[in-house]
Amino acid sequence: MTDVASQSSAPDDTRPTLTNRQGHPVYDNQNQRTVGERGPATLENYQFLEKISHFDRERIPERVVHARGTTAYGYFEAYGSFGDEPIAKYTRAKLFQEKGKRTDLAIRFSTVAGGRDSSESARDPRGFAVKFYTEDGNWDLVGNNLGVFFIRDAIKFPDFIHSQKPDPVTFEAGVANRAFDFFSQTPEAMHMVMLVFSPRGTPASYRTMQGFGVNTYKWVNAAGETVLVKYHWLPKQGVKSWTAADAAAVQAQTLGAHTKDLYDAIEAGDFPEWELNVQVMEDHDHPELDFDPLDDTKVWPEEIFPLRPIGKMVLDRNVTDNFAENEQIAFGTGVLVDGLDFSDDKMLVGRTFSYSDTQRYRVGPNYLQLPVNRPKAPVATNQQGGQMSYGRDNVGANPHVNYEPSITGGLKEATYPTHDEQGPVINGRLTRKRISRTNDYKQAGERYLLSDQWEKDDLVANLVGALQQCDRPIQERMVWHFLMVEDELGLRVGEGLGITPDDVRHLPPLQSQTLDEEEQARLANLG
Ligand code: HEM
């Protein structure tokens, strides 16, 4: 017996005994088994090999985006109504129906572009992903803190993300020239660029951010009638953001400010809350609007489509194992429950394939059997096998029957709902086309004009600071876009870069762009 081992087995020591994963007690965790005290080591040293080879496999691939994040638990409490109306008029989703009804949930907040150990003070959108463990199975609402997105077609996502990630040769991160090269060729990104480079791109904490579903979803009522919806989470703590200087000061001290803030608040019993609000539109293409309701680069004007509260979220518990609960948690936009549905939003459709695809690779094909991902509703499937399977879920009376249909046992289909497939009839020919109401600048311009002076100043300083690191043609095209967004913004950013409207007036619209009448008029009078 070694000295250390004898110390840890003092008779009054009530701590649990260390074992290996086979349940064998570990008598000596300090010394490998060797031939004589100076070695050599022996290959049958199971305890050492098991320990070191598990360590060798401690990392799984980090998320391709949103790698840095933090998870907490809580509950959703329904208000049971939709303003003055019963919510059942719009959706039959069970979690919303009854006033005071609680549904357990997990939430993961994240940054997007950095790696797993990157700074939480970085200028970046924040992920806001909520997993509701409902009685009808899981519902994931995978959103962000800014309400819109950079692109409107999922086919552009890998290119967009490559432009934000490190240089593939030098691995230099945050290269403004790469990011703005992509933005300068992507007019629909202007609304989101303005948000990310404003103070909202550096929230003061996860507790003081709004959350948005961003993409357009549907609700379905008992009669099978559908409406289009957008989700908004409003923090009871208020919205607070940092200037670039605030964020830099925090980053100089710590990379994990937001995780610590959330963790400490929950540990102290200061449970953060958000109210869930919803905007509703009739389910059609709304030709009267100057934007397409399925375009995720746009917000829906609140004066026409008011926010209506439907419940609140309270976070009251921290994770106990970061890897099991934060690294392995897996959200997806395809994870909906009865009463909720997809829209034809071309980003949403692409996302819905991407999430479970990456999770089968990142975590493994049986990721849904892990405790943090497993629904609290019963699961019974004929899926079997694959790496790290816990075994078939709920095999029923005759475990030999792992197929359906069968008259000898096994699982049966659920009773089909009384309604048929829902929503409008769709006709069209297969095509690859941009939507027609692109209107890429208007909402960005309105947002600029509505900002407080300090927010405008911070935005301009941040844009100039980033663009100063870019090639001249990229700078010129960005000034051109900002002049199209709003004269004052374009003039101020141009001034910071030494670029006047006359320097960019000759630039034609991008090949990928069709300007509407208002935009053509703006182009004719640029600056
Ligand atoms: C994470 C794809 C757009 C919010 C991810 C992941 C992928 C992905 C592959 C990693 C998932 C994992 O490893 O578990 C896409 C694609 C998009 C898209 C293909 C566009 C076509 C968006 C948009 C939002 C968003 C518009 C916000 C509304 C998130 C969030 C996470 C995430 C919050 C982190 C989830 C977590 O905390 O685990 N996305 N994404 N994504 N995405 Fe997206």
UniProtKB/TrEMBL annotation:
UniProt cofactor(s): heme
Pfam families, sorted: Catalase, Catalase-rel
Lineage: Bacteria, Bacillati, Actinomycetota, Actinomycetes, Kineosporiales
Region called Disordered, residue ranges: 1-37
Enzyme class of the recorded protein, top EC level: oxidoreductase
Record's keyword terms, sorted: Heme, Hydrogen peroxide, Iron, Metal-binding, Oxidoreductase, Peroxidase
Function: Decomposes hydrogen peroxide into water and oxygen; serves to protect cells from the toxic effects of hydrogen peroxide.
Biased composition (Polar residues): 1-34
Homology family: Belongs to the catalase family.
Protein name: Catalase
Catalyzed reactions: 2 H2O2 = O2 + 2 H2O
Matching InterPro entries: Catalase, Catalase_AS, Catalase_clade1/3, Catalase_core, Catalase_haem_BS, Catalase_immune_responsive, Catalase_sf
EC number: 1.11.1.6
Residue span, Catalase core domain: 19-412
